[in-house]
Design a protein that fits this description.
By secondary structure, the protein is an all-alpha fold. Helix content is 79%, strand content 0%. The chain has 21 helices and no strands. The longest helix is centred in the middle third of the chain and has 35 residues. It is globular and about 75 Å long.
């Protein structure tokens, strides 16, 4: 069987099963079993493939995933996230468009720790949009920043999705986490600049309203009590990884312990919060582990059938500039994101894109960060980006899809500008990881 026939059989069977409504992880598993039967000699091939897949689940690099997820769940269910939101709101005082800034700053904290863009969008949409609508904010000032925070969440550590991508691609987990710090801060600056420009060009888009002015002493107290401890925990985790004091798995353990101690210190840790946090982290972890299992077996089949080698040879035979090939892969991710969620996209594309990226001479950490950004941007690309429909479900009833599309565009452009900067100047992503080597 030719390589393209093998590739068509594997991917076609996956897409067919997904179209029938089968869960993504199970669709991959079923397609992998079919592929093993065809390419690896029947029943013996299936047994060998499954044994190799179980081996992928024993990697130490997977440990940060449940711990980072547990951090986010505790952060949310204990109310620590709510405290940080409230404090940031009071610190910004009478700043024009302050609720939009609160959404970006506070939403980043929520999204980064939760690891779920769809969950964060639903939460922020139901929490912030009604309040901003009541205050007279135009729709693009309330909806846009919420859709934009996902781009920050996925690259600023700790990010469970970045850990999963690094594991699937078999690259350095710590380096990919650290690589997102500077680009994430640059993207946050782009978002803040966008909100600032929108309020300057159209002051009526975020009308001012009377707020209680806090004294300097009160602001310092809020900063020290409700903001710095939460942000400081993330900073300490990243600093320890950069300096080589801990591995990503150990950093995740320290982070989970740190957020637990903060909840105890603020007297907001209850049995109900603990049970809800463990249940939420366990649910996503099990899904992630099924994805790792499916990806490991899928990668082996691509290699065994010759599909990977054939695809790389075919793609490189065009003698195109590597940058053009990167743009093609980027566009494929944008299109897939209109119909699939992030983990499914990674499962489908990582076994194909990373070998191709390495053959083109791309740095794997740099390419991983580009891919993370592509995954997030694809969620908000009109007309079918999944986060757009999540927002429609939680926004006020009079909100139209056109309102949501228009709101998303400036923040999509910010993310695309960051991707362009990363392509033109790779040290933006690679300088910080290089300090720890």
């Amino acid at each position: 069987m030719e390589w393209f026939e093998a590739l068509a059989l594997l991917i076609g069977s996956i897409m067919f099963l997904m179209a029938l409504g089968m869960p993504v992880a199970l669709a991959f598993l079923a397609a992998n079993i079919l592929g093993a039967w065809v390419f690896m000699g029947g029943e013996q091939g299936v047994v060998a493939l499954l044994n190799n897949g179980w081996g992928a689940l024993t990697k130490f690099a997977l440990v940060p995933i449940p711990l980072f997820l547990l951090m986010g769940e505790i952060f949310f269910h204990t109310g620590l996230g709510g405290r940080m939101f409230s404090a940031i709101d009071q610190l910004l005082g009478r700043l024009p468009g302050r609720l939009s800034y609160v959404t970006v700053l506070g939403g980043t904290g929520f999204s980064t720790l939760s690891g779920s863009s769809m969950g964060s969008t639903a939460l922020l949409g139901s929490l912030m949009v009604p309040e901003m609508t009541r205050r007279g904010y135009k729709k693009h000032m309330s909806i846009g920043p919420i859709l934009g925070t996902g781009g920050l969440a996925i690259i600023i550590p700790p990010s469970a999705l970045a850990v999963l991508l690094a594991t699937l691609a078999q690259i350095d987990v710590g380096a990919l986490l650290i690589a997102g710090v500077i680009p994430g801060l640059v993207l946050a600056a782009f978002y803040i600049a966008t909100i600032f420009l929108q309020t300057r060009l159209d002051p009526a888009s975020a009308p001012p309203y009377a707020v209680e002015e806090n004294s300097l002493t009160k602001k310092i107290q809020l900063l020290l009590s409700d903001v710095i401890p939460m942000i400081g925990l993330m900073v300490v985790i990243v600093a320890m990884m950069i300096n080589g004091i801990v591995t990503p798995s150990e950093a995740a353990a320290f982070g989970a312990l740190g957020i637990l101690l903060l909840a105890v210190f603020y007297r907001c840790l209850t049995w109900r919060a603990i049970k809800a946090s463990i249940r939420g982290a366990l649910r996503v972890t099990l899904m992630a582990y099924l994805i790792v299992f499916g990806s490991a077996t899928f990668s082996q089949l691509l290699a065994f059938s010759g599909a990977s080698r054939g695809l790389i040879h075919w793609a490189t035979s065009f003698d195109l500039d590597p940058t053009y090939m990167l743009i093609v892969m980027f566009c494929v991710l944008l299109i897939l994101g209109m119909f699939m969620e992030q983990i499914s996209m990674m499962l489908l594309t990582v076994p194909i894109f990373f070998p191709l990226a390495l053959s083109l001479g791309f740095d794997p950490i740099w390419f991983g960060l580009i891919m993370l950004l592509a995954l997030e941007i694809s969620f908000t690309t009109p007309p079918f980006g999944l986060l757009l429909f999540v927002m429609k479900g939680v926004a006020p009833s009079e909100t139209t899809m056109r309102d949501i599309y228009v709101s998303a565009i400036p923040f999509i452009l910010c993310s695309l500008l960051l991707v362009a900067l990363l392509i033109l100047y790779p040290p933006l992503a690679l300088w910080l990881p290089s300090l720890g080597r």
